[in-house]
Amino acid sequence: MPHNGDTPRPEPTYVSFTGARSADAHLTWGQQEIWALIEKAIPHDDAYTITGSLPVPGDLRLTETQCLEAVSFFLSRHESLRTVFPRSEDGSLRQVVLEEGRLPVQIVHTSLDGVAGQSTALRESFAARPFDYHQELPVRLALVVAQGLVRSVVYAFSHLAVDWYALLYLVDEVERYLRHGEELPPESTLTTPVDLAHWQVSPEGTAKRDRTLRHVESLFGDRAPLALPPAVGGSAAGEHYVQARLRSQAAHEAAGRIARGTGVSTSAVLLGATALLLRDLTGSTHVDLHLTSSQRFDRRSRTMVATLMQESYFSVDVDGADLREASRRSWRSALTAYQNAGCDKAGMDDLLARLAQGSRDPLCMYYCVNDRRTRPESARLGEGDDADWDGLLGKTVLTWPEVTEQEPFYLVVDSDGQHLDLSLTCDVRHFPATTVEHFLRGLERSMVHLAGALA
Questions:
Q1: Cys staple from 110: which of 114, 225, 233, 291, with CB 3.0 to 4.6 Å?
Q2: Domains of the chain
Q3: What is the DSSP string of 414-443?
């Protein structure tokens, strides 16, 4: 029943689009990795649907018509948003760009008090329903309208179409278009996923692929990646994973000060601190991590609305290192990993199977770190500034959210510009919940300790 002034939801409004071309290609390397994760997660592949809602600022008085015209413009502009992924005759997935078509947009009218509730309900509805990847456009949209103006835009994107960086760029582009009427570069100047797929099978793309394979073989040709600690058991049936989240201003400030003092990025500081804790936890001085590489180093791909993320293989020797030295070594190792990232899924799978040397299972990287910050440089204290580290540590908040990734060890780094948000998911058969909490607090303490020493 309607409430808070809500009206029953009508049939969706269909927005037409017409792009510059239709196109057809095999999946890009990034799309191949995402599709493998989606297939593995079915029927819970909704975990790879990117959902959210954007409150419309009060000074931006948007009508339904303006928003629907913007939807048509951006669908026409970005090929990834009008791409479907049917199967070829051999069963493989392809990307097919539609030159024209229609997108259903849900429009909900409510009162001002009902905007937040309607936005939440729409977001949850979008998130709970996996995409029909083979024939559904990879975007869902809803407009929440109150007193004649659009107050919130709710979205869902298939991860096959966009990654986190693409979404941030798209949101910024939409805001510039709506707020300033800014002219945007024509679509023809933008590299597209189809263009990228063709490049990846070119001689230049093949050379990059082969370089990545040689790098991984150089790391693990004579040893296996870092193993998980021995299983401890004791978890309830089906309850094998736990997730903890640490929200810390102290870690944010400390990482910035260490980065300034050592001449590396805050990402390298976090990788160094993680490597030292894993060294102590596993007894191994070689720490191997799966990193997520944005693959946006080329100016042609920097602002591409597409999923470009690729796994990269990071290994660092932290024998005898303190955090200052571990950060420097991690910086060099991360650059090497990013420079040697980019390969088709089948090629990497074949290599990992071969390197397993007769084992039934291919080599596996158990420890993953995903730094999702777009500008991973924390705000830094001024030259002579002192921090009340005890006071900052007292503001740290640890929570235990619902598990979103079933991974043996998965550390995600986010930031709001004032805090570091460190989320760690672990398999409790190898990492008890107490270890998960100690790990996050250990990251924070180790950085605060060194930052204080650098004052």
A1: 114
A2: 13-200 (3.30.559.10), 203-454 (3.30.559.30)
A3: EE-SS-EEEEEEEETTTS-HHHHHHHHHHH
